[in-house]
């Protein structure tokens, strides 16, 4: 009976992951995004050094890791907001290294931001309309002839109204986006990203700063994206959320992908525990280690005595 | 106190040459700063290269007037690209720094001794407006209502000026109602968000910079033609700052705010200036104020008035208070 309550796409996504290896960079049956040897250095600091990673089409994949693991930097590389020093990545087989952010979005890979970027002095509806692609009226000369873009604008408005209704923002239609609450802004940002018509939605900490009452509705919306056939890759700290909605988890630490796996078992992976809590944080010291430390200390003492003599 | 003279000069200032020139410069700044959020502090240079482009073509090289207009226009567009290409990919402050420096460079080149055979040094250029006034449809005489009237030359310049203002306001209205204007306003709010929605931010910023410059350059042509002369020091940095004051006074990102702002700014300046000088000559003010220093006092008083306006009405005349409230959140 349980299988009936699981939506079809979730079942398909889980089936795709069944029996996959837990190693970082494991090959997926149908990857939408393939990343190879991406490196980003800031001076002497290597923020990102990802050898190989794949994101399965039609799944919800979580990207987790301790603070400073390079998740957001990695996101910025992939979406063209920052340039990678080395490496390559392909979205639907199309190479995206060096492609500017707006072209990445047009290719169907749309992101949201950790700090929500609602366009404050535009109304909610204008925010939504902005997301639509190939607008005739966005050309300078055609903009001067309202007749050339009116009809398309009506179609865009209709689509935006449907999305706003789904995201329960229809009552706020004509309010300034700046007057929305933090959670509503997240919803607006997600809805606006959908106006682009993406294949891969990249959410950077979708739950950060969201009132708990809105969390469930946001989670529901993310799951809906998969049901509509989109792929979701998201960065998140909240492990409950990760367990709840993701089909697969990729773990980053110190710029590297250190483990991958299904959400229910990934947190018990020793590599992940090490990354979050530090290696040997609770392992008892072995007899050999004890002996070694003792000898080191004695040697140090002896050398000090010799120096004084 | 001759209140009649004060009244007449003040009313004339509200539609006079300065108002027209500053309104056009401010409409350009409103496009760049008010709608697209670009800090162009070199608007004076855009007017300057247009005015000099035309004046030098006609006065120095004795070429036709319309070719001069074309060269002025081309010079403005080249300047916009020159300033925009290196800076528009960077943070907003870089454009501000580069434009303010470029405006001074342009002015100093115009007044330099080395190029005085071309630009005429600090005396500038004259004798280029003949063709423009030859097109004047008004026969000699004065035009207006009672004492508020202008001679046929000024009337012609003002007619052209207000027609240009009407056209550019219509253009701005159409553009800002369109999806093109929506992208511009979104860039002002957050350009990364706009990038993430698949818009080429650099291209839109460039379009705004060029458009604002071209509107400003119309003001440059009128400035030169209205005075039948160009001098480098007309295009100094305070010109740009007055234009910014006008935009903020009217309320940024409103179609008519630069026009009303310009009229109000010049009405205030002329009214306060004339009232002060009349009061001094009538001996109504303490001896501290003399004919020589009231010019400075005038700017102090107008500055004070503008500060009060911005404290009590920060959104400007046409602005929406709700928008200002959003910034405080």
Automatic annotation (TrEMBL), chain A:
Residues 33-279 form the ABC transporter domain. The keyword Transmembrane helix does not apply. Residues 287-309 are annotated as: Disordered. GO terms for molecular function: ATP binding; ATP hydrolysis activity. InterPro entries: AAA+_ATPase (IPR003593), ABC_AA/LPS_Transport (IPR051120), ABC_transporter-like_ATP-bd (IPR003439), ABC_transporter-like_CS (IPR017871), BCA_ABC_TP_C (IPR032823), P-loop_NTPase (IPR027417). This is ABC transporter ATP-binding protein. PANTHER family: CONSERVED COMPONENT OF ABC TRANSPORTER FOR NATURAL AMINO ACIDS, CONSERVED COMPONENT OF ABC TRANSPORTER FOR NATURAL AMINO ACIDS-RELATED. The keyword Transcription does not apply. Keywords: ATP-binding, Nucleotide-binding, Transport. One of its GO terms (cellular component) is plasma membrane. Pfam families: ABC_tran, BCA_ABC_TP_C.
UniProtKB/TrEMBL annotation, chain B:
The chain crosses the membrane at residues 6-31, 38-59, 65-85, 156-176, 208-227, 239-256, 263-289, 295-312. One of its GO terms (molecular function) is branched-chain amino acid transmembrane transporter activity. The keyword Transmembrane helix applies. It is found in: Cell membrane. GO terms for cellular component: plasma membrane. Pfam families: BPD_transp_2. Keywords: Cell membrane, Membrane, Transmembrane, Transmembrane helix. This is Branched-chain amino acid ABC transporter permease. It comes from Microbispora bryophytorum. The lineage of its organism: Bacteria, Bacillati, Actinomycetota, Actinomycetes, Streptosporangiales.
